[in-house]
Amino acid sequence: MIAYLIRRILYAVPILIGVNLLTFALFFVVNTPDDMARMQLGIKRVTPEAIEQWKRQHGYDKPLLLNTAASGADQFTDTIFWQKSASMFVFDFGYSDDGRSIGREIATRMGPSLAIALPTFIIGLCVYVSFALLMTLFRGTALDIAGVAWCVVLMSISGLFYIIGGQFLVGKLWHLVPISGYAGGTDSFRFVVLPIVIGVVGGIGSSSRWYRTIFIEEIGKDYVRTARAKGLSEPRVLFTHVLKNAMIPILTGVVVVIPLLFMGSLLTESFFGIPGLGSYTIDAINSQDFSVVRAMVFLGSVLYIVGLILTDISYTVVDPRVRLA
Predict the structure, then answer these.
(1) Any idea which architecture 108-318 has in CATH?
(2) Cβ-contact 152, 209 below 8 angstroms
(3) Alpha-carbon gap, residue 73 to 91, rounded angstroms
(4) DSSP symbol at 95
(5) How confident is the model at residue 265 (pLDDT cuts 50, 70, 90)?
(6) At a CB cut-off of 8 Å and minimum separation 6, what does 178 contact?
(7) Where are the beta strands (DSSP E) in 248-316?
(8) Alpha carbon distance 194, 102 (integer Å)
């Protein structure tokens, strides 16, 4: 197990370097340091002197990837890429272009993101699996057909419809919860309950149908026929044996959600005015703040890799036949 974890961590290093290179290339293909300076200065007519001063203050006056004017290792280290990216591997995210500590912002905004993402994940998983098991239990009946049709309808509706419709109906017409904003402490419940409900409802269609497919595939296997031959009832076979043996594909799907638990939802946080990591990323993209964008992409990549490792470890828990070598 230890050897496996060490190998996976070592494999992650070139992956993270590649992600940083790709993010760097994509960002600076669209933007130049001069464009970033004009955006941050916020002045229509910016003098070349002001642009050069801003670039020197923020470290964008150097070459992007290769400094041909330097010698030795400085050709690679005295560049924007090295000075903006190398420190992230020790989780030193530096400062944004407006002078704020990115690490402090991440620590502050992680709470609101988790306040929405974690309940949405837990409640949603219970709802999706339960609904899928119910459709599987009554497979081939009118209830199953209606459930699949309802899932298809929900899948066909854009997530923006749930957000805007929920804000209008629950917040504006019924005045049950605030439309947007956030408050700390116990008052946060009023601000996060609607995004949580919308997040759960918005995922019912695709997730429940996918879990139903997994359960339908499992019930055709030999161990299910053996359990039925022993006289076990259909609900017991389904909720005990099928659910347990379907945990590996379920865990594989769950890993995709792990980065979102910390990174937040871009659309939800932006529309509801939640000061989480999702809205932080959107604001950074709009303001062309490369320091924040590359930090959030790097953090998301790290969380995704950690999720993959945790998923492999969890396989050994749900299935003793799996061994990590």
Answers:
(1) Orthogonal Bundle (1.10)
(2) yes
(3) 23
(4) B
(5) confident
(6) 171, 190, 191
(7) none
(8) 28
Cβ-count burial 144-160 (b if 16+ within 10 Å, e if not): beebbebbeebeeeeee
Contact 120, 200 (CB under 8 A): yes
| 105 closest CA partner among 295, 300, 269, 271 | 295
pLDDT at 320: 65
pLDDT of 294-319, one tens digit each?
Answer: 899 998 888 888 888 887 787 777 66
The model carries a pTM of 0.83
What amino acid occupies position 176? L
Q: How far apart are CA 58 and CA 134, in angstroms?
A: 57
Give every CB contact of residue 215 below 8 A, 6+ residues apart in sequence: 132, 133, 136, 238, 242, 243, 246
Q: Kindly report, residue by residue over 69-114, the tens digit of the pLDDT.
A: 788 888 888 898 888 888 888 888 888 888 889 999 999 999 899 8
Distances (CA, A) of 177 to 73, 119, 190, 203, 313: 58, 17, 6, 21, 41
SS3 content of the chain, % helix, strand, coil (to 5): 75, 0, 25
The residue-averaged pLDDT of 228-249 equals 86
- Residues 79/52, Cβ–Cβ less than 8 Å: no
Domain positions in the chain are 2-90, 108-318
- Cα separation, 248 vs 254, whole angstroms: 10
